[in-house]
Amino acid sequence: MPNYVVGHKVPDSDSICSAIALSYLKTELGEPTVPARLGELSPETMFILDRFGFEKPELKLSYAGESLYIVDHSDRVQGPDDIDDATILGIIDHHKLGDITTSTPLECWIRPVGCTNTIIKMMYDFEGIEIPKDIAGAMMMAILSDTVLFKSPTCTTADKKCVEALAEIAGIEDYQELGMDMFKVKSAVEGTPARDLVLRDFKDFNMKGQLVGIGQLEVIDLAMLDEMKDGLHADLQSLKEEGNRHSVILLLTDIMKEGSELLVVSDDTSVIEKAFDVTLTENRVWIDGILSRKKQVVPPLQDSFK
Questions:
Q1: Mean pLDDT per 10-residue section of the chain, whose length is 306 residues
Q2: Where along the sequence do coiled-coil regions lie (predicted)?
Q3: Cα 291 to the chain's mean position, in Å?
Q4: Domain extents in the chain
Q5: Residue 204: helix, strand or coil by DSSP?
Q6: 10 Å Cβ neighbour count for 56?
Q7: pTM, whole model, 2 decimals?
């Protein structure tokens, strides 16, 4: 019976490409491993898979009795619902250390870099395993996505060096151009239901016992969302009530202007205002320089709840 690799719920490109890349590495090391996913894929992720010739990883929601690697998260609320009934073999992640615990020893690669695929590239190098062209291309695109084309404050020298190395393996001459093509696909919002946009890149966090949902929608021009904001805000309210959440926040990120407008629905908006030292106007606020959920949004929010 093979092992599995799975990322977080509402998977993004890093989760999916990490699962593909790590499953190949582990299989090459004599440990048959299969990539899996916990949800449907975004247009951006489908663009990457189509570009490099991959099928969707298996949609698998239950892991009771299975052995698996966790990638791109270590928070219980973001993982499989029956994770307590599975054997976790390892965690590879670039976020804060979450609350997943194990009863047996495990492999951990956790680094403060911009993307999980950067860490997996380090793992390939450590094990001396050659990366296939198609996997290298997918890993490269995931890093460009997570680092917002190197604009994110989470981006490190290691991310940039990995992209350059992976581009050479994949035979990509202009990775910046391909990255922009990817973000154009990511910015395609016309005709998409509000719920699909809100959940395109959405994660729940347990903050001192309060459930907080944070989504992010990255576009190359925020103006394309102007007529959608009321609908998005209404859907945030519905999502909050459906999940019994304390707060739901949607970051509308303009990657060219390098900032985000926050749409907020909360039981106590003062917590959000305190976290970012802002005043909400009609439950919205623009903040220059906000590009990273994990580095610029989650930490101050957690401190604010404390």
A1: 96 98 98 98 96 98 98 96 97 96 95 98 98 98 97 96 98 96 91 92 93 95 92 96 96 95 97 96 96 95 90
A2: none
A3: 13
A4: 3-184, 194-305
A5: strand
A6: 13
A7: 0.89
